[in-house]
Amino acid sequence: MIEVTSLTKVYPSGAGSVTAVDDVSLHVGTGRIFGILGRSGAGKTTLMRCLTALERPTSGQVTIGDVELTTLSASQLRAARHRMGMIFQHFNLLNSRTAAGNIAFPLEVQGVPAAERSARVAELIDLVGLQGRADAFPSQLSGGQKQRVGIARALAAHPEVLFCDEATSALDPATTEQILDLIKEINARTGVTVVLITHESEVVRRICDGAALMEAGRVVEQGDLLDLLTDPTSRLADILLPVGDPALAGVGESVVLSFAQGNTQEAVISALTRRFGLDVSIVGGAVEAIAGRKVGRLRVALSHPEGHYDRAAVASYLAEHEVSVQL
């Protein structure tokens, strides 16, 4: 669905220049929810502006579906943007229009007939859970309701891709969960591809099935979320499911165990104790439901009364039980 190849964006700055996006390549599959995670200044917003053709890259390509955006004229770009929906951090609603009027606005711009607009607005009001609020103005809506209007407006023209730029960072935690669950439901019901730009790890952890980590304008890691979380060496996994400081392990060898399966981590740990005579202490970590699977990352301290154990045999046993280990 989305293919980004060697994308670079350089801005002039005084006597020099600033590289905001540096040789980024990404692949986002059709119907996926893909998160791009990074701190402020990592280049996420510039990347988003290039993906939506609001900025032309200095070099590289952006392809959405079968359209290569960087080769299009201004008029062709306007037509291509009809295939994209955008959800903003601060809602960007028109204060002079009701909720229904805001949702209808992109359809008016496209010249959709009034009867068709009304039917689509009614459908979207129901989809995002704003029944009874269609005639309310933005000043009469809560933050969560405003964002629901923003989501409905973004979906109005049946986009193929829904871009979300820090869509929940202005909301309280409870409302954030509701909005994220709504986006996930919309993805499941409509099949729209979703790209989330965020600095909040909870956003990625809660609804994404793929992710990329950006630092200093570069994508330093990307892939299927379950694959990343079950890789003990993954930097993104350490952000999403931190396992604690190895210095806290005390006596024993500190190792990281990762899994995404139905088996409980307690059974594997108990088996290690019985089978290899190991003392196992849990230092930190978590087990959570992510992307429909139970995912665990644990830092444990392993020790043996005789002071040594067969590390290769332990690693082989864990691999047989679909547990990745970093010894």
Automatic annotation (TrEMBL):
GO CC, alphabetical: plasma membrane
Pfam families reported for this sequence: ABC_tran, NIL
InterPro entries on file: AAA+_ATPase, ABC_transporter-like_ATP-bd, ABC_transporter-like_CS, ACT-like_dom_sf, MetN_ABC, MetN_ABC_transporter-like, NIL_domain, P-loop_NTPase
Keyword Translocase (UniProt): yes
Domain ABC transporter: from-to ranges: 2-241
SMART domains assigned to the protein according to its UniProt record, in alphabetical order: AAA, NIL
Keyword flag Electron transport: no
GO biological process: amino acid transport
Keywords of this entry: Amino-acid transport, ATP-binding, Cell membrane, Membrane, Nucleotide-binding, Translocase, Transport
GO molecular function, one term: ATP binding
SUPFAM superfamilies named in the record: ACT-like (SSF55021), P-loop containing nucleoside triphosphate hydrolases (SSF52540)
Domain of life: Bacteria
Reported function: Part of the ABC transporter FtsEX involved in cellular division. Has ATPase activity.
Quaternary structure annotation from Swiss-Prot or TrEMBL: Homodimer. Forms a membrane-associated complex with FtsX.
Family of the protein in this entry: Belongs to the ABC transporter superfamily.
Protein name, entry field: ATP-binding cassette domain-containing protein
Species the sequence originates in: Propioniciclava coleopterorum
